[in-house]
Design brief:
CATH class: Alpha Beta
Distance between the termini: 57 Å
Order of helices and strands: HEEEEEEHHEEEEHHEEH
Strand content: 25-35%
Structural class: alpha+beta
Length: 223
């Protein structure tokens, strides 16, 4: 028992103590898909360690995932589940794994590693059989389905905008400006959120990653 406690203390001081922290990620379900948005700043205390950290990842053509927390843990977990998604397609004649199944798989992986947890908070979403699904996961596998969710240090500011403007009955096109307003609010008030913005949508047409030029055009239309 004492040995386990000592190991957990080491994990905290040598890994958690050096984890790149601070971000804002947002996931929204819509009438015709899912919207993900995130910033690109990775911070280490008051130090900006990177200005172009990737925080939204494609899992397959109908699932995306955003990450907050330890960069190393997040990237390792992404590699694992991307491989699992590819393996599922190989074993099921090209059929893609659903967002619900992927979220449950992630929950099992995180729970199975709870002694040495992945120091991450995840949003997983996709468009399954004409239904938008979004799930949140904590570091030890707690799984909750949500209609909208935000993670990271800037999430309180983002929620302030989302609670007022977001509606699950709106389309992807209608909710994109709301997601961008929410991330902009977080970037204005949270020092650990900043630099570039990433926008990914998942719909019946598949997964789309927006370019900087497309984002500039969208921001120019914001009021």
């Amino acid at each position: 028992m004492y040995l386990l406690f000592f190991i957990l203390l080491l994990r905290y001081f040598f890994v958690e103590g050096k984890t790149l922290k601070g971000t804002t990620t947002i996931g929204l379900t819509c009438s015709d898909g899912v919207v993900f948005v995130a910033d690109s700043r990775a911070s280490w205390g008051s130090f900006v360690a990177s200005k172009k950290a990737k925080k939204i990842f494609k899992i397959n053509d109908n699932i995306a995932m955003s990450v907050a927390g330890s960069v190393g843990d997040a990237e390792q977990l992404v590699r694992v589940i991307q491989a699992e998604a590819n393996l599922y397609e190989m074993e099921h004649a090209g059929e893609r794994i659903s967002a619900n199944a992927m979220a449950n798989l992630l929950s099992n992986i995180l729970q199975g590693n709870k002694v040495f947890p992945y120091l991450v908070q995840l949003l997983v979403g996709g468009f399954d059989k004409n239904e938008a699904r979004l799930f949140t996961l904590d570091p030890i596998g707690g799984l909750i389905e949500e209609k909208m969710a935000s993670s990271g240090s800037g999430s309180p500011m983002a929620y302030g905008v989302l609670e007022h403007l977001y509606s699950e009955d709106k389309s992807v096109e209608e909710n994109i400006p709301i997601a961008l307003k929410a991330i902009r609010s977080a970037m204005e008030r949270d020092t650990a959120t900043g630099n570039q913005v990433s926008l990914v949508t998942v719909s019946q047409d598949g997964l789309k990653e927006y370019s900087k030029e497309e984002l500039d055009q969208l921001y120019a239309k914001l009021t």
